[in-house]
Amino acid sequence: MAKLKIIVSPTSFFCTRIEWALKLKGLEYELTFEDWSKGKSELLLRSNPAHKKVPVLLDDGVVIAESKVILEYIDEKWKGGDLYPLLPQDPYERAQARFWAQFADDKCFIGTWGACRAEDAQEKEKAVEAALESFTFLEKQIKGKKFFAGDKIGYLDLVAGWISHWLGVLEEAGGLKILDAERFPSLHEWAQNFAEIPPIKECLPPRDMLVNYWTALLSRLRSSAPSKL
Amino acid sequence: MAKLKIIVSPTSFFCTRIEWALKLKGLEYELTFEDWSKGKSELLLRSNPAHKKVPVLLDDGVVIAESKVILEYIDEKWKGGDLYPLLPQDPYERAQARFWAQFADDKCFIGTWGACRAEDAQEKEKAVEAALESFTFLEKQIKGKKFFAGDKIGYLDLVAGWISHWLGVLEEAGGLKILDAERFPSLHEWAQNFAEIPPIKECLPPRDMLVNYWTALLSRLRSSAPSKL
């Protein structure tokens, strides 16, 4: 079998979650880095013409894009035997994992990002409040458990995994605080624990590099935003 | 087994796709209608506190929300034997169906809705162009096939099914044209065909009711939008 390839950006947690899944499955892979300073590569444009985004998984002639779609593909293609399962077996538990994974992306990440981008103080306060409300739902999901999936890392842990490393970066770059240990004790503990587990830790990009990247991105977005009247 | 219940709105295709799935599976269900004029029901708020949105499936004590999550749940819980499969078996084909389903929701529907809402002529033209580009990708997916899934209706047909009935409504309410038969011959033919298939057709809400609803909604959104300087 040809080795799996992932087209990635070094700063994107959507890419890192794919690496985590492949490591848990014990599959070998290689990374092809996009260099945004040179524009999007011909390989990326050809592989994912609909979105033109990373990550993209190249598996022996077939191409799969969109990180949560890729995670399910990996879990369905390499299953059974000793292979690590990402999603549970029970249809209801699977539905719960998918529901909260979508929520973590759409509400928790997009909410945090919106709060980072807000420039007006009142707008920022409102956006932070909305993000905090979303994180309250995740806190309830993890309360009393080691991982979202129970005793072992699963699909939802991988999707929410950015909280353990990238959220602090976003908080720093965006000048805000979300993951307060007193407000979110279970989520905070999960995040600390998750980032220390060897197959997770070894894929984490250096924090300084991420802070530089997201700070520069926010600054660029702010300077290019239409001025307000 | 207690009969399945779906909390629905009579105008939402996100709800109708669940009805279609249950009909294809041969499962009995009953509908609980939300009456928006009275605000959100206590049942909806309790069942889906994170999004407070329809559809919600109530299945013998468990609650599942988010339409694509519900479709997968239905397909995983009632599978095998004579039960109609919604998703294919092959991991790559499943990934493709999921990818294009997400695309149909995020790009084709949201794009069309954005074009409907645009008030400024130049902004509207740009939004229509972007929506047309997205539909071009779907046209390629259906070309040469009776259904997205091949010879039989599948998951992606159900998710893209709004195109066969609601898109014309949105075009009328929003004063625009997307699904031109010359530009999108295969998608146009699929849409015509899909809406005539008995289990699909019998769930379609009356067109006049939908036109009235979406026209009133657009008018309400426009009058409440902040005036532009």
UniProtKB/TrEMBL annotation, chains A, B:
The keyword Transferase applies. The keyword DNA damage does not apply. Residues 90-227 form the GST C-terminal domain. It comes from the Eukaryota. It is found in: Cytoplasm, Cytosol. Residues 2-82 form the GST N-terminal domain. Its main location: cytoplasm. Pfam families: GST_C, GST_N. Gene3D superfamilies: 1.20.1050.10, Glutaredoxin. Keywords: Detoxification, Transferase. Its EC number is 2.5.1.18. It catalyses: RX + glutathione = an S-substituted glutathione + a halide anion + H(+). Belongs to the GST superfamily. Tau family. This is glutathione transferase. It comes from Rhodamnia argentea.
